[in-house]
């Protein structure tokens, strides 16, 4: 697919985290207290021994008083127009997958488009999600099972799904191959960040995020 013919820009989150923490005169233990994450987990992220989930980045951003885009490089202001070349997308790896921003992280409006690359077995967590706004999903490659309330939808390449995000929902990659999915979240309440909910859960169905990080 055209979307994957060029490589996105990978971000060294560990180096950037260390820079942001040092700029604010915070020790690892101080940042751990403020972010409710373990010092060991932060140390491993900074040493690039593990990749944080997007939800972890949001916790760190809130703790340091910076936008989550600060991990993408230099802080940037949100704009009314965002043009993003295919090889300029920001890409952040997490357990069993990769999150790729499509410009929503720099846009002033309440819309967040992003692509998830999901390994076999990846899922959004043990619990369903609920947030404001609407959600649009299109499967680009592989298979994705989506549960909305008590109904299940099996998405294959080209299949799409749109629904009110106030309905309980979750997803998982049941196939044996990598799945690529485009998400578009829109109309969410001011101050809400629904995108991290989709990668905040237990992506291997067994461990809590901090448990996985500390056992690496």
Shape: globular
| Cα-atom radius of gyration | 17 Å
Termini separation: 34 Å
User: By helix and strand content, what is the structural category?
Assistant: alpha+beta
If classified by CATH, what would the architecture of the largest domain be? Sandwich
Spatial strand order of the main sheet = 1-2-3-4-10-5-8
* Total E-strand runs: 10
Name of the CATH homologous superfamily of the largest domain: Jelly Rolls
Structural description of this entry:
The protein is an alpha+beta fold and 216 residues long. Helices cover 23% and strands 25% of the residues. The protein contains 6 helices and 10 strands, in the order E-H-H-H-H-E-E-E-E-E-E-E-E-E-H-H. The strands form 2 sheets. It has a 7-stranded mixed sheet with strand order 1-2-3-4-10-5-8, with no helix packed on it. Strands 7-6-9 form a 3-stranded antiparallel sheet, with no helix packed on it. A hairpin with a 2-residue loop joins strand 2 and strand 3. The longest helix has 11 residues. The two termini are 34 Å apart. The N terminus and C terminus are likely disordered.
């Amino acid at each position: 697919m055209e979307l994957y013919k060029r490589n996105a820009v990978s971000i060294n989150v560990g180096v950037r985290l260390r820079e942001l923490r040092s700029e604010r005169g915070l020790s690892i233990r101080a940042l751990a207290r403020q972010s409710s994450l373990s010092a060991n987990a932060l140390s491993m992220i900074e040493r690039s021994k593990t990749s944080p989930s997007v939800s972890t980045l949001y916790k760190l951003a809130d703790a340091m008083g910076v936008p989550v885009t600060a991990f993408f490089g230099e802080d940037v202001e949100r704009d009314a127009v965002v043009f993003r070349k295919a090889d300029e997308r920001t890409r952040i790896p997490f357990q069993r997958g990769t999150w790729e921003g499509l410009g929503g992280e720099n846009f002033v409006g309440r819309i967040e488009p992003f692509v998830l690359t999901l390994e076999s077995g990846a899922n959004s967590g043990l619990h369903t999600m609920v947030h404001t706004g609407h959600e649009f999903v299109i499967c680009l490659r592989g298979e994705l099972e989506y549960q909305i309330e008590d109904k299940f939808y099996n998405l294959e390449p080209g299949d799409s799904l749109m629904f009110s995000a106030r309905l309980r929902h979750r997803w998982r990659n049941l196939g044996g191959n990598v799945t690529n999915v485009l998400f578009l979240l829109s109309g969410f309440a001011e101050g809400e960040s629904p995108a991290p909910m989709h990668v905040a859960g237990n992506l291997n169905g067994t461990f809590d995020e901090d448990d996985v990080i500390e056992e690496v």
